[in-house]
Design goal:
213 residues, alpha/beta, Nucleotidyltransferase, domain 5, 2 domains, 5 strands, 16% strand, RNaseH_domain
């Protein structure tokens, strides 16, 4: 595909000589299973793990990035020659968290701290967004491994805890307790258009809630 060709060209042009690492996070809404996977292009197999709770997709993707960095730290001895790595992810949201750490959740900051360990060892490190499902071999392999982890009966769990997704989990719990069964099930009404005046918007909200005021 065109997307694959453009991505491969970009990687060759900007990261020539870098070892490529691909990551992917996956969340299965049906049962809340959440997984993370890492593929090192130069390694025969990858590494996958589970989160142990129903995480957000961004948290799963950040977990995969953290897992990749932990793998790189573990396989590169302090005395080894510095290397260049490019970590490829198809999650813009996760990469954005890493580029704005002042507003990022604790998990993103821990991922950044692990990246700093690697750079202090003398290694060169870059993060690169890649499009999903366009035939990029490493990305497809990471996606397949993350999906496979859902079916694993005894998979290793990451150190990521529910606290890392506290905001999402609290919002889910509040929504599930809503007295309207439709809202509790996630069937939320469309937002009132911003273009409407205050009176019209109030009328719509009144009709929805069954309130006369």
């Amino acid at each position: 595909t065109v997307a694959k060709q453009l991505t491969e060209h970009h990687l060759e042009q900007h990261y020539l000589g870098c070892s490529r690492v691909f990551t992917d996070g996956s969340v299965r809404p049906s049962d809340g299973s959440s997984t993370a996977a890492v593929i090192l292009e130069e390694a025969p197999s990858g590494l996958g793990s589970g989160l142990g709770f129903h995480a957000s997709s961004t948290t799963a993707e950040l977990t995969a990035l953290g897992l990749a960095l932990a793998v790189l730290v573990s396989i590169t001895a302090p005395s080894s020659s510095p290397r260049s790595w490019v970590i490829c992810s198809d999650s813009r949201a996760a990469l954005t968290r890493l580029s704005a750490l002042e507003k990022a959740p604790p998990l993103a900051r821990r991922v950044a701290a692990t990246a700093e360990i690697l750079t202090k060892m003398g290694h060169s490190l870059a993060f690169q967004w890649v499009p999903a499902h366009c035939g990029i071999e490493g990305n497809e392999a990471a996606d397949e491994l993350a999906e496979k982890m859902h079916r694993g009966g005894n998979i290793q769990m990451t150190g990521v805890e529910k606290f890392d997704d506290a905001r999402l989990l609290v919002a889910r719990d509040i929504a599930a307790r809503h007295p309207d069964a439709r809202l509790a099930a996630g069937d939320r009404p469309a937002r009132v258009p911003r273009s409407l005046g205050r009176r019209e918007a109030a009328t719509i909200h009144g009709l929805r809630t069954g309130s006369a005021w």
